[in-house]
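Working notes for the structural subgroup meeting. M.R. asked for a predicted model of this chain before we commit to crystallization trials. I am recording the input and output together here so anyone reviewing the notebook later can reproduce the run.

Input as submitted:
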Amino acid sequence: MMAVLIRFYLIILCVLMLKAGIAQPAADSLAVMQRLMDAGFENLSVTIRGDTVWALAENRRYRYDPRGYAELAEAVMPLLGAHQVLGVVMLRRGVPAGQFTINRTTWDQGRRGDLPPEVFAGKIVVTTTMDKQVARLVRSRPERTSWNKIDLVVYPQVKIQLGNFDDPFKSQFNLAPSVELQFMRGMQFMAQVIVPLQNDLEPDGNTVRPGIVALSHTIRLPSDLYLMVSGGYFTRDRYGLNSEMMKAFFNGRLLFGVTAGVTGYAGLREGRWQYSEVDLVTFFGDAAYRWAKYDLTLRAGAGRFSDGGYGWRADLFRQFGEVTIGFFALESEGFLNGGFTFRVPLPPGRYSTRGAARIRPQDYFGYEYRAKGLSGAGKFFSSGTTLPELFYHIRPDFLQREMAGEFIQRYAKSEKK
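Returned structure, recorded in token form:
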């Protein structure tokens, strides 16, 4: 009897050892880190929590964020080993902007077409919040940082005025090369020079002159609250300080924002630089609601514009992938105006992230046409990229659908080869 029991336990032990021998190994965090480095992502950290491999990464490689983070997932999925879930904390200037998780089985079924696209998209869990345990990684120094690396970005500038009786069409075309440098997490310096190409719109528009020269710092506070503070020389010939605050509700479908600044005038007049004291206080508060089903956003707000006038502005715009088209109306001190806006991508779709200095064009070109273009009423100065622009393509509902589409397209292309 004893011999039978011993034989039975030996058989059980052999089976367990055999299973252990063929089980998938655990993911190697160093291998995941190296794969992400090779793929061109920056500000990287990798950790493993339970059955989830977590990566903190910033996409500075791809113009379109859904394509960039789909590329990240495709690169890491084969390295998950025995782990079932990939989690990614998406960064902006090194600051957490949201996260997504995707199960490996769901990813494989969805890209192969075994799941309807809308079901597949719904299983990619995207949130504006961040896993508390993973959040500790943000305080450590990441690998392959974008800090102290120079980005030379070339911005096209276009101004058009229609309907003036003495000249029905006036225009101005400039190139504005900009040196952009991150010193630390959330802190960026921008120095821009405006080079005129053609001008019949402004008397001093034929002169090479400074554009935005500013230092800005972005931080994330608890409860999906973001703060950006900027100081320097801004657009519309303003210099001084400006601050922005943005709060997300309902997983990013509702945004509240407040902008406040104190500036003075500094600019060219008849070939000579003139300036004033920092004495103009501006502020603007707005709310934006996104109708996820149609990628439609309604934004409305009120405050004081950069010319000192008080008023309001309302925008309605829709995203079509990388293209945005919208309409707006505004009122300032009794002056009504309106028009349309659009935003289109500029080639190429992928940038180099190697080396200490990188050259690339502006990622998206935006233009605003006003029915009454002669007036400067109801306009804002710009200190660089705004908080809503930083998070534009990583809104949870938008990112879900676009990433699912990217996975499906990539698999279809691989099957044709």
